Amino acid sequence: MASDNTKDEEHTRPDGVDDLTVEALGNISEALEAIEIARGHLYTFHRLSGTADFTLGKGVEQLREAGHTELAERFEKELVGRNVLYGRWTFQIVEEYDDGYYGTFKELERQARDELVAGRRHLHESELKEDRRTHGRSGHEHRPED
């Protein structure tokens, strides 16, 4: 078991950093976590939209084989391969999001940590852990053994 007295430099606030700064960076980190989840949903949207388009194509071919040529052609012309937003398939939406909002968010969050706390991550959470855990109790260790 790791000693409760072993300092975890990676998750200890640097000298001179005030509570409000740690709390602010904690909120920014929490917002980034929400953005990561949103990004995952965007990739889910991308995958499901592509799957739907290929499955639709299969259904259209089956309509054609069943003799419903006009209806199959209407689906094919109006929907198969259609942009989901004006001028964009989902891969283009994902790329624009990644290169724009998401990329900017990641970079600014990293810059804030670098400038204010020597790049350290999750300082707020680390301090919450110290406040909430039962020191010296199994299952409440400060960190894993090296």
Describe this structure in words.
The protein has one domain (16-131). Helix content is 65%, strand content 0%. It has 4 helices and no strands. It has helices at residues 19-65, 69-78, 90-117, 123-132. It starts with 18 loop residues before the first helix and ends in a 14-residue tail after the last helix. Residues 119-146 are annotated as: Disordered.
Number of domains: 1
Major β-sheet profile:
none
State the secondary-structure class. mainly alpha
Low-confidence stretches: none
Which word captures the global form?
elongated
**How much helical structure, as a percent, in the residues?**
55-70%
SSE order: HHHH
Taking all Cα atoms into account, the compactness measure Rg is 25 Å
Task: Provide mean pLDDT, rounded.
Answer: 93
Oligomer: single chain
Query: Which percent range describes the beta-strand content?
Result: under 5%
Distance between the termini: 10 Å
Total strands: 0
Alpha plus pi helix count: 4
Any chance you could write out the topology, listing elements then pairs?
Layout: H1 19-65, H2 69-78, H3 90-117, H4 123-132
Keywords for this structure?
single chain; about 150 residues; mainly alpha; elongated
Could you give a short description of this structure?
This protein has 146 residues and is an all-alpha fold. It has helices at residues 19-65, 69-78, 90-117, 123-132.
